[in-house]
Write a structure and sequence with these properties.
This is Lipocalin-like domain-containing protein. The chain is of the alpha+beta class and 143 residues long. It is 18% helix and 45% strand. It has one domain: Lipocalin. Strands 1-3-4-6-7-8-9-10 form an 8-stranded antiparallel beta barrel.
Length: 143
């Protein structure tokens, strides 16, 4: 009887802890800005593509809480970046408890949903259900 009560108590505590750990997509905003390096992509069929080396990183800059730009940046050994003048403008909307990022260029429009954004990790899913996992970019130190 005591063991059964302990199991029930443990289960109830675990359920309360897990239910309190829901992610609020508005909290992702504070972590979105910065330099991000892709780690891997999980494709719709379940296959995974690993990226052990990247010659470019994504730079995300917020203009305010609803708009920003994303650019491809190429780091160099001097600690600076090379880039083109091309940038993808985006708008952020919180919809149905999700953070959706709407991109618009002269050539295309698309949407990505942020699944997770922390200090060191960014996870987004696109319209093809491919999940992109990024890590915070850290420059190579050759000293």
């Amino acid at each position: 009887m005591i063991q059964k009560l302990q199991k029930i108590t443990t289960l109830l505590v675990l359920m309360m802890v897990l239910s309190g750990c829901t992610n609020n997509p508005e909290d992702y905003l504070e972590h979105l800005e910065g330099y991000w390096e892709i780690e891997r992509v999980i494709l719709n069929d379940g296959s995974t593509k690993e990226y052990s080396y990247n010659d470019t990183v994504d730079f995300i800059s917020l203009e305010d809480s609803q708009t920003g730009i994303r650019k491809k940046m190429k780091p160099n050994f001097m600690g600076t970046f090379e880039t083109s003048k091309d940038a993808e403008n985006f708008t952020i909307k919180i919809e149905n408890d999700s953070m959706n990022v709407y991109y618009k260029t002269p050539f295309d429009t698309w949407k990505e949903t942020v699944l997770l954004a922390t200090k060191n990790q960014l996870k987004v899913i696109n319209k093809n259900n491919a999940i992109f996992l990024y890590k915070r970019y850290k420059p190579i130190n050759i000293n």
